[in-house]
Amino acid sequence: MRLTVNGRDHEVDADPDTPLLWVLRDRLGLTGTKFGCGMAQCGACTVHMDGTPVRACSTPLAAAEGVRITTIEGIEGKVADAVVQAWVALDVPQCGYCQSGQVMAAAALLAENPRPSDTDIDAAMSGNICRCATYQRIRAGIHEAARLLEA
Ligand code: FES
Ligand code: FES
């Protein structure tokens, strides 16, 4: 199967039912996308498909053909830069395990809605679980990224 990941084309010989997460991690070496629950419940495996956040653990390889896949290793542009800058400035991560998924979800939210309210943030981020409970800093980080984008 042909995949386009972070702007590069790849030929992957795998069963079409293989979860995208394992192709990214085990075949392409993109280990920034994490395995958490494997059941689309935690968001640790969030990647973008044509800019939309999806759970790579529950996305079959067959569904990933013909779309632009972006992982934490390949995210770029002014929205991504603002999120990363805000995350560093506010020291958002604790253990860090969930954070690539959080950043991917936050970047997708801000690309759609550059001035999200607390309610918008909570709705968009509710599927991304953080066992360290960094939720307050994630919310503040998204507001800070929005401020940076506006400036
Ligand atoms: S590992 Fe995919 S949602 Fe938890
Ligand atoms: S920072 Fe530890 S799980 Fe989120």
Can you describe this structure in just a few lines?
By secondary structure, the protein is of the alpha+beta class.
Topology:
Elements lengths: L1 E4 L2 E4 L8 H8 L18 E4 L2 E4 L12 E3 L7 H12 L9 H14 L5 H8 L9 H16 L1
Parallel strand pairs: 1-5
Antiparallel strand pairs: 1-2, 3-4, 3-5
Helix pairs in contact: 2-3, 2-5
Bound molecules: FE2/S2 (inorganic) cluster (2 copies).
Q: What are its keywords?
A:
151 residues; 5 helices; alpha+beta; globular; five-stranded mixed sheet; 2 domains; binds FE2/S2 (inorganic) cluster; Ubiquitin-like (UB roll); DNA polymerase, domain 1
Radius of gyration: 15 Å
Give the terminus-to-terminus CA distance.
42 Å
Shape: globular
Bound molecules: FE2/S2 (inorganic) cluster
**Physical arrangement of strands within the biggest beta sheet:** 2-1-5-3-4
CATH superfamily of the largest domain: [2Fe-2S]-binding domain
The proportion of residues in beta strands is 5-15%
Second rung of CATH, namely the architecture of the largest domain: Orthogonal Bundle
Number of strands: 5
Number of DSSP helices?
A: 5
- The CATH topology of the largest domain comes to DNA polymerase, domain 1
Major sheet description: 5 strands, mixed
Structural class: alpha+beta
**Helical amount among residues, as a percent range?**
25-40%
Low-confidence stretches: none
Order of helices and strands: EEHEEEHHHH
| Average pLDDT over all residues | 97
- What is the level 1 CATH name of the largest domain? Mainly Alpha
